[in-house]
User: What shape does this take?
Amino acid sequence: MSEACILTVAITGSLPRKRDNPAVPITVAEQIESTQAAVEAGASLVHVHVRNPQDESPSSDPEIFARVLEGLRAHCPGVIVQFSTGGRGRDPAERGAMLSLRPDMASLATGSVNFPTSVYANPPDFIEQLAATMRAEGIKPEIEVFDLAMLYTAVTLAERGLIAAPLHVQFVLGLKNALPARRETLLFLIEELRMLAPDATWTAAGVGRHQLAVNHLALELGGHCRTGLEDNIRFDASRLARSNAELTARVADLCGRYGRRPATPAEARDLLGLAPCG
Assistant: This one.
């Protein structure tokens, strides 16, 4: 079990919007400020989507990603920056357009899955294209596992040389129509990962009301944690989360119960096999 726990903060995503929670950072300045506060609370990795400031819709504009990346590197030294290549609201041809900016990491869903009201489509040729681009740009993928087959696909891609080892996998739990947020499910996923890629690292993300329960499971079972307003606009059933920093601090406080502590950005880079900052 790793004592240090990498805390990922997913600051905005595609939803929610300001009308759902005023704490959601939309503009570049808001995203930088929100990330800085979350890093001070214990986060060492930030998962980045960007929005069109006019209507808050998801954007693939490399210029906006570049401004966020520049600001994060200036105001959050050492933090691991991970760009999302997720598909909600974005044309498939544009989803990897910002990878030329060479963030530290980028998300890579290795299969398609039913979302609650739509299909998150990731055809095999598209997955291979994104993986090859990340490999060429020196970007470490975070393998997004929404369903079991995605884990096996990722291992196959690594065997073919499209993804560099060691793998880093994020298990996404609690999304309707996909993997349930059950302890038994996560235990099985971890067992399979250890058998297929014993040197891999893993994070668990709980969606919506499952976020806190999955944080507990990840800490107990030796993994890393994801939190943030992207996954859960509510802190609990009765009130809205006030900030990404509040959600991050909640997980940081939990670490001690399991003999863990939040990893520093430098420790997180070492755990993930990333180059030191600077």
Summary: Residues 4-272 form a domain with the TIM Barrel fold (CATH 3.20.20.70).
